[in-house]
């Protein structure tokens, strides 16, 4: 038996995406990473030397720590919770003490811990930010009292909340850590020609452009975790998952950067628009920025036209990597991580929280597709949605209201690998039709499938119809995605093979 303390950061998405500034979002994500990873060990032990360095499992917004006795554990909770409250207001941490945690019966112990934590969350929500008394100026990014002056060059001596400034101060460290993490790619592979930015205006083309907010999550990881019998095995498994996610990100960065020659995109887009990278200190700014890369979760923001491309690339790279897991001979545990992703393509001025909410719902939709599929060989999936400025409402309501006609859905509800190959083929066939006729086909799709077929037969090459069948449910999404998906050597990007050839 051990004395364990479980730390969980609640409402992580609200904390990260409460601001519409990329700098604040990145800083918030880094704060969550740091307060629940190895850094808390180093900081705590250095500041309070009477405690030995606790053993633990870290990452993803939670941590499991072990102490010699209950007194030390309670002292840790008291001191560390006060530190978090003072340093990072509006962060919502929960601490759960289990004085009889059985490391050798890990699954039963951790399940009981999670059950107790849920009861705690349902019974108590801590107040972790200053109250607004109605007489203070409010922070433009958080709606909390603006009591801290930003004296940085970009701050223009404005006042912000302590919560916003904590995120903003952390953002530079986050960017430095991220660049250091992928130094091998950025420096050794591309001679230090590329960098990441904390400003959304430098990632997307212009303020009238679209941004892609993407959430990717591993499939059925929970069923694997349930097979981990001891703490040490669970700890190693967590570390291996983290390693594979970072390796897949390295490969994704390589592939993305290789698509640009002297800052200019090596492919093209259906509408003829170009894509040229902006610069910072003579380095080209990559058109995407990961916000969360922790555990089996990835969230990133990118130039809208590259969101689906980057998401598919990452998922494809991730599935190539078997888990280098030495504590078990179970082949299922050692299988690669198969993931699903949701891509919300939104106008650049759309609140990030709304875009992230859509991306999360799309990920759920993509996972549902796999669960309901009879083809068990399909392991990965994506779903996407292009949110025009005039569309309002929640995700499910938007799809039903704007993309359903006479109870018929004008969307596919997610794409497996095979489905997406069919979608790419459909886009390729549409590419040979004039743009005016393509838009007419989109309008007719909202009337009936028969109207589309008749128009194709009369005005277009009807190769879209095979054996009197049309990929009707994919048609509207294919037409919309054509502007937001790259073309290489005259063909829409097909996947891994396309990467090798380009």
CATH topology of the largest domain: Alpha-Beta Plaits
Q: State the strand order across the main sheet.
A: 13-14-8-15-16-19
Low-confidence stretches: 497-502
Q: Characterize the largest beta sheet: strand count, sense, and whether it forms a barrel.
A: 6 strands, mixed
Estimated structural class:
alpha+beta
Put simply, the count of helices is 19
In the CATH hierarchy, what is the superfamily of the largest domain?
Answer: Reverse transcriptase/Diguanylate cyclase domain
What can you see in these coordinates?
It contains 19 helices and 21 strands. The protein has helices at 12-17, 22-35, 38-47, 70-87, 106-123, 162-181, 183-189, 200-203, 221-225, 231-257, 307-318, 331-334, 352-372, 395-402, 417-430, 435-445, 449-459, 472-481, 496-501, and strands at residues 2-10, 55-59, 62-67, 92-101, 148-149, 159-160, 194-195, 210-218, 260-261, 264-265, 279-280, 283-285, 288-294, 297-303, 339-347, 381-387, 404-405, 408-409, 415-416, 487-488, 491-492. Strands 13-14-8-15-16-19 form a 6-stranded mixed beta sheet. A 4-stranded antiparallel beta sheet has the order 2-3-1-4, sandwiched between helices. A 3-stranded mixed beta sheet has the order 7-12-11, with no helix packed on it. α2 (22-35) crosses α6 (162-181). The longest helix is centred in the middle third of the chain and has 27 residues, at 231-257. It starts with a strand and ends with a helix. 39% of the residues are buried.
